[in-house]
Amino acid sequence: MGERARLLATLPFRVWAVLHAVLVLAQVGLAGALLDAALGALAWHGGIGGSLILVATVQTALAVPAAWPGRMPGWPVAVSAVLVVADTAQVAVGHLGLLAVHVPLGVAIVVTQVVVAARALLPADRRDARRRPETISAGR
User: Fold this and answer.
1) Radius of gyration of the chain (CA)
2) In terms of Cα–Cα distance, which of 44, 63, 64, 40 is closest to 52?
3) Phi and psi for 36 in degrees, rounded to 5?
4) How far apart (Å, rounded) are the C-alpha atoms in residues 37 and 122?
5) Do 93 and 102 form a contact (C-beta atoms < 8 A)?
6) Is the dihedral of CA 27, 30, 32, 35 positive or negative?
7) How many CA atoms lie less than 13 Å away from 66 in the CB half-sphere?
8) Which end of the chain is more exposed for a tag (fewer CB within 10 A), N or C?
9) If we measure between CA atoms, which residue out of 127, 107, 126, 82 comes closest to residue 28?
10) Residues 54, 11: contact at Cβ < 8 Å?
11) Spatial CA neighbour of 124 closest among 24, 23, 1, 21
C-alpha cells in the first residue's frame, strides 16, 4: 500500500481521536464548573457526555482502517470499543447520581482517550523505521 493510501486510511482516525480527547477534557472543565455551581454546566456536561457514546462508536469504526490497511497498531480498535462501553456506563451512573463510580470512571475515560489520541499522532508504523537498517545492511 502506498504512502498516500496509508495516510488516507489513518488521517480520519487521527483527527477524530484528537477531537474525542478535546471533548473528554471539556468534560473535566464542565465537572469543575458544576462544583462551582456555574449556570448551565450540568446541561452541557450531560449533553457532551451523552454524545461521547456516538463519538467513541465512530472512533472505533475509524480505527479499523487505520490499523488495516493503515498499519497503525490494532490496540486502538479494541480500546475504542471499550470506550463505547465505558461511556455508556458513565452516562448511566451519572444519571443515577453515583458519584463514587462516576468520578473514577470519568478519570479512567479521560486518561484512556488522551493516550489513544497521543498514539494517533505518532507515525503509523514505527516498525518500518526499525526494519530499514536491516534491509539496507542485507542489501550490501
Assistant:
1) 18
2) 44
3) -90, 5
4) 39
5) yes
6) negative
7) 30
8) C
9) 107
10) no
11) 1
Residue 63 in grid coordinates: 480505527
Q: What is the 3-state secondary structure (H, E, C) of 79-140?
A: HHHHHHHHHHHHHHHHHHCCHHHHHHHHHHHHHHHHHHHHHHCCCCCCHHHHHHHHHHHHHC
* Integer Cα distance of 77 and 46 in angstroms: 26
Rounded to whole angstroms, what are the CA distances from 88 to 32, 36, 127?
21, 26, 35
Instruction: Report helix, strand or coil for 1.
Output: coil
Residue pLDDT, tens place only, 44-78: 999 999 999 999 999 999 999 999 999 999 999 99
pLDDT in tens, 3-33: 888 899 999 999 999 999 999 999 999 999 9
25, exposed or middle or buried, with CB in 10 Å at 0-12, 13-18, 19+? Answer: middle
Q: Scanning the structure block, which residue is given the C-alpha cell 448551565? A: 40
Residue 45 is placed in which grid cell?
Answer: 456536561
DSSP state of 74: S
Amino acid at 19: L
